[in-house]
Amino acid sequence: MNVEKYLIRAIVHLARHKEFYGHIIQQFQKVYVGEKHRVDTACVSRMQGEKLLKLYLCKPYFKKIVEEAGKEQGWTHTVAAIEHEALHVVFGHLFLRFEDRLRGNVAVDCVVNSCIPKEDLHENWIHPDNYDFPEGKSSMWYYTHLRDNPNYKRQCESGAFGAEGVMSWIMSAHDWKDVEEDAIAQEFMKDVVRKAKDMCGKQYGNIPGQVLEQIEDLLKTKKPVVPWARVLRMFCASSQESVLDWTLKRASKRFGTRPGTRKGDVLNLAVIVDTSGSISDEQLKLFFNEIYWVHKNGAIVTVIEADADVTAIYPYKGKWNGRVHGRGGTDLEPALIEVEKKYDAAIYFTDFYAPEVSRRYRIPTLWVLTTEYDKDEYPYPWGRHIKIEDMKAIPA
To answer: Lower Cβ count inside 10 Å, N or C end of the chain?
Structure first.
């Protein structure tokens, strides 16, 4: 069996039947590796010291698939594996950061394999059904719910995710640490998706609606003004003492006393949007563009709209419908009262045209401002402050 020719045929087959995925795969250099390579399945990544992202395909792995599953089923699994890698590119999984990398790997595989017909998948590959989860959820949804999932816990305890375990597919498939914070690589990956879309025109082929939505979201969102990946890391580090909360539900493991402490590995953010009349429609577009990138960097986001009072509270799911509540006067305190002690931290988007606040609220707060006020004129001096000056970044 000439595995390299076999894989080339599989790529051509994918391009003929699912043109969009084919155009994505064809933009990457293919590297066919052997047993001793660090990639023991398949992945889109780059090796240390390299600049270009490439598609790595492990020949022994695919040969084993065919030998174990048979010629017909092995062919189906091989094409699905290449489709799997194209989908990771579409969903931008190479640039997601998870504190628990293994759980993050399982989460992104749940997303991707939800978009591939289940009969095409190898029985040992990750799927939401393995954990009694619904299909079509986000990677962060799966990541959060996997933490306490009994099936996932059993797999971890049994060593199912080890190098020789039945779920070893995920281990090298997502070896992306080198590219997580590379802005150039991120723009290149987005350009790959854009070119694939342009080459297809309106003829996407058999592409699930969830993938079509992701393509549109990826290409319509402008780059953030604020580098949220770095800002959130610094913000979390500086707020560590405040993020640690107390709970009466669990005893301290160290001392056996109550209250114990609990600290989640996903930042639960309150993002407050000033919707008063002094905020223009263009500024609101800018705010929600930034909120999109906060969400994309792994935080659980609850949006609180507020003018002189809190006017709306809702979980952010990655989209904004273009409408807000309020548009009256400005008072910073009602929103601060609402979020105090309920969230790990708060990000407040505002122009700071508001009455002075004398009380210091007990929640780490990052103020994102569109004002030229000097710091000694701030109505609320506590917290960290970022000024957005580049209004050209407003999305259309």
So the answer is: C
